[in-house]
Amino acid sequence: MWWLAAARRTSALRPGLRSLSSSTTCRTVVLPRFGGPEVLEVRHAVAVPDLKPRQVLVRARAVSINPLDLRMRSGYGRSIFEPLLPLILGRDVSGEVAAVGASVSSLSVGQEVFGALHPTAVRGTYSDYAILAEDELTLKPSSVTHVEASAIPFAALTAWRALMSTARIDNGQRILVIGGGGAVGLAAIQLAAAAGCSVSTTCGSQSIERVLAVGAEQAIDYTTEDIELAIKGEFNAVLDTIGIQETERVGINLLKKGGHYMTLQGETAALADRYGLGLGIPAATAILFKKQIQYRYSHGIEYSWTYMRADAEGLDEIRRLSEAGKLKIPVEKTFPITQIKEAHEVKEKRIVPGKVVLEID
């Protein structure tokens, strides 16, 4: 389980640069303690760590803000991250390769790249220079800007993990995305449509036109319609980006036998925070196993908690689709990185409903 693996990590970085970056220090947004947007600090002259052999140093040009960033800032995952404070938040990045580790073979200095870190990374991307593993990066599509590119990888890889790695969706299947208006939902709709699937989705009224424009064949306004009455037939896979009791019930009841229900809202981190790693992780494992057995026997379906992970094949396909204009995550607003507190505030208060990106000059 990824949360247990994260508990064994440290923030140490070993030397291994093949070529030197132009700077040994940089500007970085630091999270010194958990709290509201006001706790975030922009620090200057922060040391740029040396690289491990398979790592890449990226001169960031844009980084997006994900819901996970807000949750981590507020204390989600504190059982893992509190001993490692101060943290650097941020998962997505788009920029140029500034240096590569000694064993990196697929990328070279000067290339424009984009990619995303694993959810448990301690040194995130809110910085002039971000460090990612080679398989967490690929060439940036030339048809999109750094701002547009930075909004794509974390959300798209989360959707890819669920639909392609777990459910293994195929041409002609029916897919339901619960909560299609968010970044992961939009990415899932586009990935499923590109795979030749028929996609239905639920969303708010403000997102109806957007989800239909990116490939959904049916969009149900959950605020005014009964989802179970509005949807006809059954699905091969359901991706639930909301993950509350009601959406889980609806999603499972709409699946065909042999189908896959996948939720982004697994309980591992929450239980680890509540009871500590020693009790929380075994408790979460037991809950997941119980639900998997329960739904396998009661409904004949597979049940999963899903999350983003690095996938070189998936990232390359995401790049190809983005290059072709078949995968886009709209950016609603940008902020300079120096206005990180304001950027987090507008996301937390939902003043800006869509994607927010930090630009780094």
From TrEMBL:
SUPFAM superfamilies the record matches: GroES-like (SSF50129), NAD(P)-binding Rossmann-fold domains (SSF51735)
Entry superkingdom: Eukaryota
Pfam families: ADH_N, ADH_zinc_N_2
Single annotated GO MF: oxidoreductase activity
Enoyl reductase (ER) domain residues: 35-358
Name of this protein: Reticulon-4-interacting protein 1, mitochondrial
Biological source species: Dioscorea cayennensis subsp. rotundata
